[in-house]
């Protein structure tokens, strides 16, 4: 209190105040003389100081209590922690009753959910490791990162409740209340880790060219954009689960060149788990088992050895790639929607990616140790091996990965989600155009076996027609009669080759020919070839001799 009752009595009016005007005026004059007013002022100042001192002591006591509680919370054993908190009177139960003990009454906590939560709040308030639902894993975990399910042991938790002063909590009730507590504290452990780990960007651009430098890819604007897309899609999938990632890079190269190691290293670095690896997607396997294997454990799904794929397999991968979330469940638990925090990658040692004639905008081939094309087909070094770390050259893959993540964060700050969406759409457009050109050039497609075996040889033997173009240009072109070509293939294969008309049409288009019908007769016209010499040069470029090809490869290497 600011002023005591005696103080107010001292300066209160007398009981007979108002009966005698002159006496009352003298009384008022005496009571509110300068000396009296000074005494009142000093009294109020003393009262204010007392209040301020009381508040200061209260704040100091609260800080000391918080410091003491924080020290107690460092105890890793929850039973010992609960006992220490109880002894320090840090657990304030909400529901209590009075119980006689001898000549006195004491308070006793009731067995209510509120009181159970009071114990859990005291045990885990203000600490980082608490029971929570981890949306990265889609699981409920305790303070030791153990899954809380129907098989989760709660004997230590019951002992902790008892040590905290709440005795008699049943096992089933303990399991239920810790699940509810965890559900009320949802977070994403991967995002939390990355937010703490991603450094400040050093300002050096790496996104566009890291894949080019690591795998010695051909440096083109398209491949630079694909590289930037790869890192941004990985970053956004991790930091904003369910983000767009509709394109999968397909690493094509020799066995052991670092394709699988690349994915493994990324998973280990980003998840901080030495056991982490990319998860193989088996197209004929159990989809739910795959989701359980990758969710919360890896950030990359891989599809390997594309050589045996059918068009149905390719369509299945396209469908999987475009999704941003999945319906999943764990055994004995309900179904839930899991936003994806992983991306797709493909790899193989053969280029047979272009299976869809209608267009491909979901995959982009990247040739590891790429050489100049031979015969119109991509080539790559068979002895290529990606270099992830080299102290002498100052190469550290892990450092580069973290700086790229920092660069991605900076890019997203500058461009936002709308900028990312627009960028992805542009890359999809570029990838679609690239793959259409690949199919037209008969690159990366699965060619009919008989056509592959006999067509170029037959073209070197079939009779050619050199005729003027009908466009008035005065130029000539080369034509091949379709029936005559079939006859040559028949003779070369001793009648065993089976040539499908649509397959032959695509194969001729890949060689630059179009089908025409002069006077109703089907022929193939090479408008860009003016004579037999140009025609023979085209065939020679498609089918170089082994010596010529080896020399070209050796030249590219050195």
TrEMBL record:
Lineage top rank: taxon: Bacteria
Native organism: Pandoraea anapnoica
UniProt lineage: Bacteria, Pseudomonadati, Pseudomonadota, Betaproteobacteria, Burkholderiales
Domain Virulence-associated protein E-like: 200-370
Name of the molecule in the record: Virulence protein E
InterPro entries: P-loop_NTPase, VapE-like_dom
């Amino acid at each position: 209190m600011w002023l005591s009752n005696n103080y107010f009595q001292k300066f209160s009016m007398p009981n007979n105040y108002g009966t005698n005007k002159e006496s009352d005026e003298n009384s008022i004059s005496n009571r509110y003389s300068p000396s009296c007013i000074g005494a009142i002022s000093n009294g109020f100042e003393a009262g204010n100081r007392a209040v301020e001192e009381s508040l200061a002591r209260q704040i100091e006591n609260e800080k000391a209590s918080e410091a003491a509680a924080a020290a107690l919370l460092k105890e890793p054993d929850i039973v010992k922690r609960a006992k220490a908190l109880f002894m320090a009177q840090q657990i304030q139960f909400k529901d209590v009753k009075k119980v006689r003990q001898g000549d006195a009454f004491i308070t006793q906590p009731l067995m209510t959910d509120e009181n159970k939560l009071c114990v859990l709040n005291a045990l885990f308030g203000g600490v980082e490791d608490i029971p929570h639902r981890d949306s990265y894993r889609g699981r409920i975990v305790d303070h030791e990162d153990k899954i809380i399910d129907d098989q989760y042991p709660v004997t230590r938790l019951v002992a902790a409740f008892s040590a905290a002063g709440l005795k008699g909590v049943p096992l089933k009730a303990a399991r239920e209340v810790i699940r509810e507590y965890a559900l009320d504290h949802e977070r994403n452990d991967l995002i939390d880790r990355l937010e703490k780990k991603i450094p400040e960007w050093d300002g050096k651009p790496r996104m566009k060219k890291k894949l080019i430098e690591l795998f010695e890819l051909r440096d083109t604007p398209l491949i630079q954009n694909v590289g930037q897309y790869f890192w941004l899609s990985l970053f956004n999938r991790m930091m904003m689960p369910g983000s767009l990632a509709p394109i999968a890079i397909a690493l094509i190269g020799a066995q052991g060149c670092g394709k699988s190691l690349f994915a493994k290293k990324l998973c280990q670095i980003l998840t901080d788990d030495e056991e982490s690896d990319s998860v193989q997607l088996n197209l004929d396997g159990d989809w739910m088992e795959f989701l359980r294997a990758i969710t919360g454990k890896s950030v990359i799904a891989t599809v390997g050895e594309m050589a045996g794929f059918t068009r149905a397999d390719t369509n299945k991968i396209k469908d999987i790639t475009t999704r941003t979330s999945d319906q999943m469940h764990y055994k004995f638990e309900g179904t839930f929607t899991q936003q994806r925090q992983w991306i797709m990658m493909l790899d193989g040692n053969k280029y047979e990616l272009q299976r869809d004639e209608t267009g491909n905008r979901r995959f982009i081939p990247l040739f590891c140790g790429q050489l100049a094309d031979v015969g119109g087909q991509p080539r790559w070094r068979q002895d290529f091996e990606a270099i992830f770390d080299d102290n002498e050259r100052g190469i550290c893959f892990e450092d580069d990965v973290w700086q790229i993540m920092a660069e991605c964060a900076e890019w997203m700050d500058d461009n936002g989600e709308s900028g990312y969406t627009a960028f992805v759409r542009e890359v999809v457009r570029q990838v679609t155009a690239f793959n259409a050109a690949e199919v037209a050039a008969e690159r990366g497609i699965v060619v009919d076996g008989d056509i592959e075996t006999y067509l170029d040889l037959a073209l070197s033997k079939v009779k050619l027609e050199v005729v003027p173009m009908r466009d008035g240009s005065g130029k000539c072109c080369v034509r091949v009669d379709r029936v005559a070509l079939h006859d040559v293939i028949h003779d070369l294969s001793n009648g065993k080759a089976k040539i499908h008309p649509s397959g032959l049409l695509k194969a001729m288009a890949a060689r630059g020919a179009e089908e025409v019908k002069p006077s109703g007769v089907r022929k193939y016209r090479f408008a860009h070839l003016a004579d037999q010499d140009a025609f023979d040069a085209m065939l020679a470029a498609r089918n170089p001799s082994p010596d010529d090809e080896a020399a070209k490869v050796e030249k590219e290497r050195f």
